[in-house]
Predict the 3D structure of the following.
Amino acid sequence: MSTSRRSLLTALLAGGLSPELLALGLPVDGFAADAPELLPLRGLSGESLDAATTVIEGRLPVALHGRYFRNGPGLMQRAGQRYSHWFDGDGLVQSWTLGDGRASHRARFVQTAKFRAEQAAGRFLLPAFGTAIKPDLPVHGPDSLNVANTSVLMQGDHLYALWEGGSAYELDPATLATLGVKTWAPELRGMPFSAHPKVEPDGTVWNFGSADGRLAVYQIDAAGAVRRHALLDVAAPAMLHDFAVSQRHLVFLLAPITMDIAAVRAGASMVDAMHWAGEQPTRVLVVDKADFAKQRIFEMPAAQAFHFGNAWDDGRLLRLDYVQSTPLPEFNASARQIMRGERTARDVSTPRVLEIDLDAGRLRLAARDEAVEFPVVDPRVVAQRHRFVWYPTAVNTGTRWGFNGLMRLDIESGARERFSFGNDIVVEEHVMVPKPGSTREGEGWLLGMGYDLKRRRSFMSVFDAMRLADGPLAQAWLPYAVPYGFHGKFYSA
């Protein structure tokens, strides 16, 4: 591609790529342009984003006051080299500030040690999870490779950007300026702290980290003090992303994934060194919250689960819901295709509800066929009995990549409610925000982001969480597109 054409396309993308150019299927900086829904995955170059005002369609609820933080991979390429896997991009944290019917937005890259060094050099210097890059800097441990790109956690006035392979990074919640690596306790320095902590209604935080087949488990109080931690030797799989918490238990689905360490040492990426042993079972590890040494393991057919909704137990019956993904090889192949701007085969992740009879040792699994991911529940029912789970969903999307709707599932009755934006919208994770003063599960709003293929702009939508079919109450439109993120949280003011 000539310099003049590259400059022209870059300028057009900054202002919104025209349908005519997309129809030509022209590559943009090595990224295929024939799938317009994938254009946000081109990423940014390390710049900040700011919108002091946004265009509101509809009306934001007057009682909706607070900040919505999101995190996800934001920088995908440097000096002509592009990451091979979606999980590799450097973390971009967004903040939406809502109040008085208005919304503002900002986004900042987490200034990890890796990001700062590579920004200064103008090229990649360190290997990534799914991309084999020869290290040009010493690798002292997981935090040398930390991209802080997956989720967020706020405790009091402390905001953290999370990545499951290493430490949390603390940010200023008002400015998103990076404050540094978070060490929960001196003996936990550098220990992995997953991107999916579970926060109970009283503020208690449960989390884990996995490394070398072992699980570190944490109990942290609402003030941020570590109450208990332990290291469990449970032959954890090479990749473990999420878990569930009930009244009495921590629950992990340990998929049959192994790691060829020799291959990693020889220069392979972690993704390339992982192996899926589909003939082996997925182990269900149940850990007693009151005594981490009390553990039980059950077995089920091989299954890969990235995300859980919630769990509850009554002492005998333990029930959890999750989304079953495609096996790891197929998932990683798809993650690589979309990083090239290519549509993937329609591998579908679908809802599951698992019941475990703890006395009899029996498992019962209920499966559904809707295409969903990123399950969330009302934060007031975390680790308690719940009825409702919300998901992004795909409704008649054909060959197009991504979700285009939202779904609420009643896991007691099996009833569902859906809304589809149509095929010009890509829907990201939405979170459930309780209405101030309400006590009933689901009474509140569903809030999250999306991308409009025609406008080439990102937006935030707000729904009545119990009336999805009515469509959005409001949408706040940004003057730019934001790379697709992974996970977020809303914190009321």
Observations:
- Residues 1-34 form one domain.
